[in-house]
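Researcher: I'd like a candidate sequence for this fold, 217 residues long. If you have to choose between options at a position, lean toward the conservative one.
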């Protein structure tokens, strides 16, 4: 089963992907996480990506597509994967179809987590991420058991440099202009399914899991 998880920044894609990956035994592929690791390691690709990420802009399609293509070709994806934050442009969606054709895989569903902008701003500005394992928390809505310490690995939590109010506003505008057109792309293929993301984390999860079970049969 290959699932595309969509939605604006802060909707809860990463949070849901973590839970869905465990439930359905699928590899969780987050392009944002891949870029943040590359930035941390200081690779050439990381340096390039950082220029865009810091401004809240999208990393150019050719870079992102190459990375996803390489990742999907690995053996752990032979039965599918959970794509979190990719595709984010129609060009990326088209490129994904080509890559999957070569790999003899099909998209099972494109699930969008929907949340209003005001709530997205609250979620993003309170987000904290584990420096070691990447797990996501929220200072109010999903706090760790011990302040600033990851429940899973005891790593230190930090605030992403792009989770500031100005960058968040830019990212939301880019979502509207560049990413929303892929909704129609997947609607036309009868793959699109949206869930109300403005509910408790576990309620959203139950909804998405039910949909995935229904299409898996
Ligand atoms: P995305 O990957 O879509 O950008 P995240 O999963 O990182 O979103 O979630 C953004 C922030 O909102 C995080 O701080 C997370 O803990 C919090 N969050 C996620 N889902 C919910 C929810 N259903 N209710 C409240 N807060 C949530
Ligand atoms: P969020 O879900 O909060 O928007 P991500 O962690 O998914 O954040 O992405 C962080 C940043 O990484 C984006 O703002 C963008 O610069 C870059 N990025 C991630 N995925 C893509 C993609 N598919 N295409 C272009 N840029 C991307
Ligand atoms: Zn951790």
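Model: Candidate sequence:
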């Amino acid at each position: 089963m290959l699932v595309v998880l969509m939605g604006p920044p802060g909707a809860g894609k990463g949070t849901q992907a973590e839970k869905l990956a465990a439930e359905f035994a699928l590899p969780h592929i987050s392009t944002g996480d891949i870029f943040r690791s590359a930035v941390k390691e200081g690779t050439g690709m990381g340096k390039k990506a950082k220029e865009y990420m810091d401004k809240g802009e999208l990393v150019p399609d050719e870079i992102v597509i190459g990375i996803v293509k390489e990742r999907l070709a690995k053996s752990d994806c032979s039965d599918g994967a959970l794509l979190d934050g990719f595709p984010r442009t129609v060009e990326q969606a088209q490129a994904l179809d080509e890559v999957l054709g070569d790999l003899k895989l099909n998209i099972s569903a494109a699930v969008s987590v929907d949340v209003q902008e005001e709530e997205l701003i609250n979620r993003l500005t309170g987000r904290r991420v584990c420096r070691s394992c990447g797990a996501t928390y929220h200072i109010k809505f999903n706090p760790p058991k011990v302040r600033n310490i990851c429940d899973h690995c005891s790593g230190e939590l930090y605030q992403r440099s792009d989770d500031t109010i100005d960058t968040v506003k830019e990212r939301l505008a880019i979502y509207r202009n560049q990413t929303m057109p892929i909704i129609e792309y997947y609607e036309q293929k009868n793959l699109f399914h949206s869930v109300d993301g403005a509910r408790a984390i576990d309620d959203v999860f139950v909804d998405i899991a039910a949909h995935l079970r229904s299409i898996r049969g």
